[in-house]
Known about the structure:
Number of helices: 9
Amino acid sequence: MVTQATAPRTAPRVAQGGPPLGVLGIVVAALFVAGLVLSTALAGGTPFPSPFGEAGPIVAYFQDHDVAVRVGGAFQFGAAIPLAIYAATVSSRLHHLGIRAPGATIALAGGLLAATFLACSGLISWALSQPGVTTAPDLIRPLQLLAFAAGGPGHVVPLGLLLAGIAVPGLLAGLLPRWLAWAGLVIAAVAELATLSLLLEGAAYLLPVARFAGLAWLIAVGFKLPLHRPRLNG
Length: 234
């Protein structure tokens, strides 16, 4: 005889890992590098002009290689989308792993900002390739500077926040190998120092260092960050 209702049996919780982080990291890096390679090839091997160069060669590049600029901008915009997904997924993963410190939120904020600025840089580059702009030299220089500011420090500095937001809890909670977590912190520091590129031309070399090292680190973390918090025995 049943005297009281039994408590309903709850279904076991299934870990929602989201898209595979390692694959997302590879897609981001592949799209970004493909844009660089294709745009350089379409420009006949001519490298993208430095924003710190003379105005004459810069204007000539954008007038002569509009297709290369358009393709590069499209791939930059494309790379921003999986980067935003990566940031959202890794933040959710850290929360699932029990991280309640600000690191997970910092990673999300930094990743979304980095993706937004990268997308803006791609769209500005697309605008630079349009006939109405290439025939107006007075527009080319300011738009190129804006594309550099968005895709350079605007993208790289928040990317450092994404790295630091993952590396700090990864180190303190033992979610990542110590060497990998420390490497992420070093790259994040370089990314933050890249802010100096807005003040010192010589500091611009920090941008590609932090960008490509950061992309490689995100790929490695994507395959190393666990789905479940390791349990301690005892």
